Amino acid sequence: MSVESLDxxxxxxxxxxxxxxxxxxxxxxxxxxxxxxxxxxxxxxxxNHSFSAETGTVRGLHFQTPPFAQDKLxxxxxxxxxxxxxxxxxxxxxxxxxxxxxxxxxxxNQILIPIGFAHGLVTLEPDTEVLYKVSNVYSPAHDKGLxxxxxxxxxxxxxxKAQAILSAKDRVQPRLGELPAVFHY
Length: 185
Ligand SMILES: Cc1cn([C@H]2C[C@H](O)[C@@H](COP(=O)(O)OP(=O)(O)O[C@H]3O[C@@H](C)C(=O)[C@@H](O)[C@H]3O)O2)c(=O)[nH]c1=O
Description:
The protein is mainly β. The protein has one helix at residues 32-37; strands at 2-5, 12-15, 19-21, 24-26, 46-52, 58-64, 72-78, 80-87, 89-90, 98-104, 110-113, 117-123, 128-134, 143-145, 183-184. It has a single domain (2-184), classed as Jelly Rolls (Sandwich), CATH 2.60.120. 3% of the residues lie in helices and 41% in strands. The protein has a six-stranded antiparallel β-sheet, with no helix packed on it. A five-stranded antiparallel β-sheet has the order 10-8-12-6-14, with no helix packed on it. A two-stranded antiparallel sheet has the order 3-4. The longest helix has 6 residues, at 32-37. Residues 48, 50, 59-60, 62, 72, 119-121, 138, 167 line the site of dtdp-4-keto-L-rhamnose.
């Protein structure tokens, strides 16, 4: 596998090897040992799988607060997403800034989003399935959001507000300036 840092260096793109043959392919999509060799030593405790029927489905931006904060390792089984991570760590040189990357079944890449970031995605194809590992259990009381189209974030989503398909809760999340300081650099 290869590991590459994005402009916010804590966010990594991981490309597992894909062994193709006449039957199809084989891939170690996660190996604790290989990740540890690459300096990524995270205990993942839960796998999440989401399916979005329509192109332009926006999920996020989401994070869980301590003591239930989560690292996330995201990949796409079918279709494609634009994945976005926003730095929420107060005191970070990249606080409030974001990175985005296309993650797709075709490229077989993954994105690692550590604790301290809000995470969101928009589907770029219909019938997109996302599978991601998280390092802490789901805690509804600690599950928080940030408004996906907060102008202060300046995220170039490929969908307009009118086109985006969102959950009811994600239409009304707080803006960055309204979030309490929960993560520190
Ligand atoms: C996140 C989560 C949700 N649920 C339930 C709650 C709810 O009834 C249903 C759908 O939840 P949501 O609307 O929060 O699903 P969704 O909007 O897909 O939430 C996800 O968005 C992406 C961007 C993330 O980063 C994830 O961590 C998660 O927050 O699933 C669980 O049972 N376990 C979980 O871990």
